[in-house]
């Protein structure tokens, strides 16, 4: 227990698995936690009068129990026996050999094959935050810095399994990013610039970080240093596979804030059993491809050339079906190259996995050949970069047995013919039967005893057994070892020597196999970089052939992406909803055209449930898919590259954070209006409905007007059930009305889900309530109230009031009987805003200010 307490004191915040004989034991509080999480029995034992809780499991079940502990958010320190109990008289030396945490794991049962397992650190700098992500299981190391909003988005995208923060910023982190992450708090001194530079330069064996293009990211470097420091703290020191650090170049990717990622349900959904976009589009067949696809979805491209390159490869695969099939056939033969090579680097690879690595690389050759012989330039390039690692494969083939075991202790790891010494030892150990038979024959002849028997047991080893009837024929040189009721057992010098040889051989075999296997691993280290490169290229091929598969199965077309700012989708469909339709029902397609000169804002009115939100979301998803490099669900699509996608959909309560629905809605909308750009796509759904009708209409009107008048002229789809907003088209030339059509039957409505020009007259909320099975009397009462309200507040009245307010605002600006104001009005009207420079504008403003100043003096 003294030894346990000393080790536990070094790792107070980890759950300590303490190896005792064939068991891993936990004590005290750890035992209480472990018993609860693992559902194992908790007992007690009296150690020196103290009653201590105890819970344990057999050491060979570690892979069953460890993942459960880590997934429950525990950091687990594995404490092993560091020496052979046979070789020590005192207590066995023990020490922590590995610390497994939610963000630092190499164990296959903890990792999910198609997701990265990121360890992340967030550093709170003076005016920016730094962030870095490291996946020890694949060797990817990424860093960035920016505002809290940017970091929040990256945290959403990369979904780290553990986040490191300095203790002094514990509250800042929760205030900014909530409590959904597993966090671990480190001492403040770890987040220091000099320490970070030293850690990174020591690790990469560099003088400075210029070569990685991150030397200007001060805060990013500090967070990266903290991540590396944490790895050494958790006993991970063999990290040759982490051989570069990359900047997340956000300016190259489409910006989506976290609300958009959540609203579009790209990879998570708040609703149980909901299908996400990733579920529909993921046709990848390798773990590397699955992980890369998530990255592409989080970071869609803005560069037209790069997007077109991906489209061309997808087109090629879609047209050349046999090429696609062959390509996918070979990718299917592969294991997780990236994680296998990382296991090699960290020294955690077993013989069976080395064979898997070799077999995975066998498939690279055929893929390389297919790619280099294709008619597509990008594919040829990928083919040229693939390395079939022939020397590595041959070396593994000649060294290891094809059926090598998982555990090297099981023997039979090294192939026959690789080591003469090993073959001789094996011969000795396994040909003992022939040798003993010969000895028996010889001794029988010499002594004339017909019933001689040679056998062995654990106590005496090998012996010769003689029945009592032949006792007198035993030679004097034999030594008696044991007397039985009707026989005697003897040993001879020859037998003793032979026994020593055999026992020595078995131990020597194990030792030699281990030695040869370790030599092989050291030799294989040379191949870490080429194998990682292969893994990345195969992942790209997997994603692109997956896109071709997706396009074939679901009838997607190639989008035309260009530098314009026009968005034109013909017969667009929602990729997820179309897969959820009942049998026999076909998806009703819709056209959307948005541009910056004629149709910048589309007001979509129509009742609830008519499909307004689906049209909004599918527009964003079509753009996203196109810019990821995929084909799109439409009959035709022309997409001027979008650089930011903003959505504000429905009322997502944030009550747990103490904010009301309406406040959240206004926060999100404010963030959109403050970040607009010429290439933005804005999707607003039911803005203003979290407050009273008049408030809501006024806010929605003001927001639409702001979007129309803003110099960026961002393309906008605005779904609303405030029909009063249909009036806006009269005043604002680039706002157009559309509605989702409905067919009225006698006392029912039919949703046609088709977008048609023009505003809709009234809402069908009461019809929807009736369809939902609302009691009859509630529906009748609602109808009565509606008629009364419509009489007293007719829509025309509201629209007139809005129109008056609009004109008043413009008029009240100028009291037209004042000649000076008349003059200023003329000045402003004759300004050519398009050619005015900012400096001229300021001078003009100053001039007007002076004129008004004179008037003030005169009147006083």
Explain what this protein looks like in three dimensions:
46% of the residues lie in helices and 18% in strands. The chain is of the alpha/beta class and 860 residues long. A seven-stranded mixed β-sheet has the order 13-23-24-25-21-26-27, sandwiched between helices. A six-stranded mixed β-sheet has the order 3-4-2-1-5-6, sandwiched between helices. It has a six-stranded mixed β-sheet with strand order 11-10-7-8-9-12, sandwiched between helices. A hairpin with a 3-residue loop joins strand 16 and strand 17. Helix 11 crosses helix 21 (528-554). The chain is elongated, with a radius of gyration of 37 Å.
Class computed from helices, strands and strand pairing: alpha/beta
Question: Whole-Å distance between the termini?
Answer: 93 Å
Number of helices: 31
Low-pLDDT ranges = 652-657
| CATH fold-level label of the largest domain | Rossmann fold
In short:
This protein has 31 helices and 27 strands. With 860 residues, it is an alpha/beta fold.
Features:
860 residues; MutS, DNA mismatch repair protein, domain I; MutS, DNA mismatch repair protein, Chain A, domain 3; 5 domains; six-stranded mixed beta sheet; 46% helix; elongated
Secondary-structure blueprint:
Blueprint (H helix, E strand, L loop, with lengths): L1 H9 L4 E6 L2 E5 H11 L4 E5 L2 E9 L3 H10 L4 E6 L12 E7 L18 E6 L4 E7 L4 E7 L1 H11 L3 E5 L3 H8 L5 E4 L6 H12 L13 H16 L12 E2 L7 E2 L1 H6 L13 H5 L5 H12 L5 H16 L1 H12 L4 H9 L5 H12 L1 H9 L4 H9 L4 H10 L20 H11 L1 H16 L5 E5 L3 E7 L11 E5 L3 E5 L1 H32 L3 H27 L5 E3 L4 E6 L4 H4 L9 E5 L6 E5 L6 H17 L7 E5 L3 E6 L11 H13 L6 E6 L7 H17 L5 E5 L8 H4 L3 E11 L2 E10 L7 H7 L4 H17 L2 H17 L7 H11 L8 H22 L1
Parallel strand pairs: 1-5, 7-10, 9-12, 10-11, 13-23, 18-22, 21-25, 21-26, 23-24, 24-25
Antiparallel strand pairs: 1-2, 2-4, 3-4, 5-6, 7-8, 8-9, 14-15, 15-17, 16-17, 19-20, 19-22, 26-27
Helix pairs in contact: 6-7, 10-21, 11-21, 12-15, 12-21, 13-14, 13-21, 14-17, 15-16, 17-20, 18-20, 27-28
